[in-house]
Amino acid sequence: MRVVFDTKTLATARRGEAWREAICEIYLQVDCMAEKQKDYTGFVREARFGAVTLTDTLCSPQSIQRRAHHTAHFDKDCYYFGIEHVGEINIDQAGLSFPIRTGIGTLYYANEPYSLRCYVKSRQFWAELPREAFDRRFDSGRPPLLTSVDLTRGLGRIAAEFCSSLAQENAHVDGASRERLGEQLMDILALALHGEPGRQSADEKSVQLARLGSIKAYIEANLGDPSLSPAIIAKQNGISLRYLHQLFRLTDMSVSEWLRLRRLQRCHDLLASPQNANRSITEIAYSMGFSSSSHFSNLFRAQFKVRPSDVKGAYVRSSRRAA
């Protein structure tokens, strides 16, 4: 993830003040008071997936308040979903109080007054979710706020693991895939929040669909690995090969067919992109995990009914006409 702010780069006496300024710039306008203004320890790392922003944050003991005069400026219209790694943060909003701790997550609305209190050094993921897009995923028109999401099992665990996968693999995900992954994250979080507080198992199909989305995100981030196979995909996602094949029965193709299709589609996009005008067809094919240019060409023609050179040549011809 991209480092947005880190107190280690600053002089000790400047860290507390700089952290307060960074929080207002990265997140929202708030009042932030750290217990230790000097020698404050904290960082913010960020990755963006379309309209969704995922941050990995380390903070020292502090209190944060977002008051009515802050929300009047309407910086952003979003929710935040918190996933605690270490420590605990307490959220107060609209007369409700909720602790975010390891294994328990929750959602709050950023454009209503709230307070966050952190009594020990804490580290967490925050998923910033655009309000209108997230609201559409609920029949009531709005998600439940400050309700418990069990992150140790069922849909809650899948949501937490999906966030971890996005954080770890984001450097290997291209721009075309990021928006889709952001939409998938909102889908999975919405499914987790649909369950009753304390009961996140949901029905089996919902769990399978959420798990399938998480696995597809892992595959998407590793398309360029020529060794990627169903066995490796299952192992890296902590499931059996049999269960992996069972999940893909929910789609119209096997895991191997889906992997091959996504590689071919990515190659098509790369061949058609002017940014890759100087790259050879073989280089592009190898970058997406193919190990034989002739085999790639045969698969490409079978899928798209044109040769790879036709797709790349179409851009070259259009560029010459424009010139």
Give a quick rundown of the structure.
This protein is an alpha+beta fold. It has twelve helices and twelve strands. The chain folds into two domains: 194 residues, Jelly Rolls (Sandwich); 118 residues, Arc Repressor Mutant, subunit A.
Radius of gyration: 23 Å
What fold name goes in the CATH topology slot of the largest domain?
Answer: Jelly Rolls
Q: Give start-end ranges of low-pLDDT stretches.
A: 196-202
CATH architecture tag of the largest domain: Sandwich
Intertermini distance:
40 Å
Beta-strand residue fraction? 15-25%
How many helices? 12
The number of distinct structural domains comes to: 2
* Biggest sheet descriptor: 7 strands, antiparallel
| CATH superfamily annotation of the largest domain | Jelly Rolls
The whole-number mean of residue pLDDT values reads 85
Strand order of the largest sheet: 1-3-4-11-6-9-12
Secondary structure tally: strands: 12
CATH class of the largest domain reads Mainly Beta
Protein structure class: alpha+beta
Shape estimate: globular
Question: How would you describe the overall organization of this protein?
Answer:
This protein is of the alpha+beta class. Strands 1-3-4-11-6-9-12 form a 7-stranded antiparallel β-sheet. The chain has a 5-stranded antiparallel β-sheet with strand order 2-5-10-7-8. β3 and β4 form a beta hairpin. It is globular, with a radius of gyration of 23 Å. InterPro entries: AraC-bd_2, AraC_XylS_family_regulators, Homeodomain-like_sf, HTH_AraC, Tscrpt_reg_AraC-type_HTH.
